[in-house]
Structure formats: C-alpha cells, structure tokens
Amino acid sequence: MVRAPRLSLExxxxxxxxxxxxxxRLVALGLIxxxxxxxxxxxxxxxxxxxxxxxxxLRAGFALNYAAIGLVTxxxxxxxxxxxxxxxxxxxxx
Amino acid sequence: MADGEDFYQLLxxxxxxxxxxxxxxxxxxxxxxxxxxxxxxxxxxxxxEVSEAYDVLSDPQTRRRYDAFGxxxxxxxxxxxxxxxxxSQQAGAGAGGGRTRSSGGTGxxSGGTGxxGFSSDGGxxxxxxxxxxxxxxxxxGFGSRRGFGPIPGADQEAxxxxxxxxxxxxxxxxxxxxxxxxxxxxxxxxxxxxxTDGQRIRLAGQxxxxxxxxxxxxxxxxxxxxxxxxxxxxxxxxxxxxRLAPWEAALGTSVAVDTPGxxxxxxxxxxxxxxxRIRLRGRGLPNPKAxxxxxxxxxxxxxxxxxxxxxxGCSNNWPRNPTSIRGHSSD
Lengths: 94, 331
Hints:
Radius of gyration of chain B: 30 Å
Largest sheet of chain A: 3 strands, antiparallel
Number of helices of chain A: 4
Helix content of chain B: 25-40%
Structural class of chain B: alpha+beta
Number of domains of chain A: 1
Strand order of the largest sheet of chain A: 1-3-2
Mean pLDDT of chain A: 88
CATH architecture of chain A: Orthogonal Bundle
Largest sheet of chain B: 4 strands, mixed
Mean pLDDT of chain B: 72
Distance between the termini of chain B: 78 Å
CATH class of chain A: Mainly Alpha
Order of helices and strands of chain B: HHHHHHEHEEEEEEHEEEEH
Strand content of chain A: 5-15%
Oligomer: heterodimer
Strand content of chain B: 15-25%
Low-confidence stretches of chain B: 94-144, 300-331
Shape of chain A: globular
Number of helices of chain B: 9
Distance between the termini of chain A: 48 Å
C-alpha cells in the first residue's frame, strides 16, 4: 500500500478524528503547518499528525489555550534543536 | 506608501491573503519576535510593528481602509473617495519618496503636501499617538495597550566582538546597535579586564522599555573574542606557538615571547621536543576574582633564527620538510 505523501483536509480530519473546522483553526493559529494550493485547499504532510497529537496532549494535560500551546510547541522545538546541538558538541570529546 | 513597511510585507502575506492566513502569519511572527523569546534588541520593535499590522489587517473594515488609503488611513476622513485621495497623493509624491516609516502626520490628504514633511527620526510620535488612540493608553512599551498597567521591559542581548588584547586590557569601548526599525543606539561600555568568551556585560536599564513608567529591561552584551592570528584562547589561558630551530630545542635557549601584557623571556630547557607545553604563570588573561592566569607556550619544531617567536612567518625561507628536522629536536 502506498501512503499518500500529503493529506487533504478531509483525510487529515479523518485520521486525526478532529472536525475540519478545528483543523482550519489550528492552521490559522499557526499550530500546524499546511500548504494552501491555488484552489485554496489545505494540504498536510504526515509529520503534522504528530504535531496535532502534541497539541491535543498539551491542551488536555494543561489548562493552556491555543495561543499558549503555540508558544510552548515553539519552545519545545527550540529546546530539541539546542539539545541536539549540545549532544553533537559533546560527542567528539576533548 | 512606504515600501519597506507595508503591513502585508511585514506579515509576509500577499495582499489577497485570507483572514486565516493573516492570522497564521501573525501568530508565527509574534512567537518569533516576542521580546521575552527573542533577545535581539531589534525584536521588540519588530514585534510591535507586526502587532500593529495585524491589528489593522485582522479587522476587515480597517483592512479595507488600509488597502484604499495606505498607512495613513486613520488621517483620512470616513467619506473620502479612494480615487480622489490617490490622485492627490500622487501629486505630492514626487518630493516625498523614500520614507521608511509611517507618519504622514502632516495631513497626507491635502493634496500637494501629502507624503512629505515627516521628520527624519521616523515619526514615532505619530505612531504612539495612533496606538494611544486605539488602545487607550500610551507609554511606549508594548503591553500597556491591553490594560495590564505598568509592565517592566524585557532584557535584551547583543553580541560584542573583542580582540584578545581588548579582553586583556579592558577599557572603554563604544558600540552601536541597530534596532529593528533601523534606529541606532550608541553606548560607551566599560569592559572589565579579563573578560572571557561568552561572558555577559550588563548595561542596566538599556533593554526593552517598560510601559507606564515601569523600569526598563537590561541590555546584556555577550562577549565574543575574535580569532587571533597568534593566540589561541581557552578560557583565560592563552596558547602561543613557539617555533624553534632544532639546535635550540636540543640545546636549550632563552627566547623573548610577546604576550598581551608585554614581552617575556622564556627559558626553553634542552632536549625539548615538539608539542611540549611551557607554562608562564600569570601571563594569560587576568582573572578579576583571583589574580591568577596562565600563558602556555607550545614548542614548534623549527624557526628561522632571526624571528624566533611567530606562528608562521618564520617558515618562509626555512626548509619546509619538518620530518628531517624533527629528527634532530626529538630525543
């Protein structure tokens, strides 16, 4: 079975189990990335499934609104990059 | 219309972007430039500009007026026809090209004068008036607009590059920072002797502006020490390569070495091999807390006798085959 490299809004909604309107809102809030084609349709890469899951977990686990979740995810991503750089800097050793 | 400061360009969206796309662009930029997230001195100004752009474009009605009248739309009365206004603008545009910021405080609507008459420092007053008018409360700092009362400014960080000599001596130094809107601020900074790479120098109250009389944030200058042709720096320790002729290394010698604190005589014991480290106590960067530092020399394998201490200049006329010579200097 060939997995489609990208998902339409409807497919994405089915996979995530969320209402398309909510997904549109998440895109508008900058919480998940989507490409808009010339017809105005949204397309999602599969990596955004993880992003949605994280948004849902943060939303359920903390009393965060979506604006705050955007900030938290940005910072988490930044920390991940810094930690990776730190590991890379340590490994060669001195 | 000011080219560099167009609200759509600020948000990075096309003019026909949907409200959703505008909101998406704004949310991302706001998270990138919020002064508590981005310590760059220009970030706070950028954040304010992005917020202002979003405040205008997020409301369909103000967005329409912005599209019709440009950045000065608030100065245009409600019932003006966009076409008439545009023609009057173009009449006055010839003299007013190249502005960088909003303002148009001088009645951008009255035909000939529209488009110029703004001050070179960018019409900040107009902008503040403008924001004050909308959000009820001015004070310069962002945040006041939502009615939170006085909010202290955020700290900012900027890098400052010093040479090894400057780090050793310390002293006064003037630096200029460019803000997000192109404004330049100059500081006279006193650098303590013995600053190290990554150290932060605090300039109290020079960071983000506090709103409503709250205190300003601090500006931290992060020291970066520029690579030096002769010295290698590890913390406060300096490393210098010392190139010796093989007979000098074999028999021992006394060599003059330049250090940031002046010339030092180094005694090289006989039988020294390449790579050996000789420590000169207290000759590295001064430590302000404990007055102790180290300068370490490393042996090179050869050098032209005339200029013994240099990292590289000595190899010009000297034989380039190290192995044949190293044979002598190693025991």
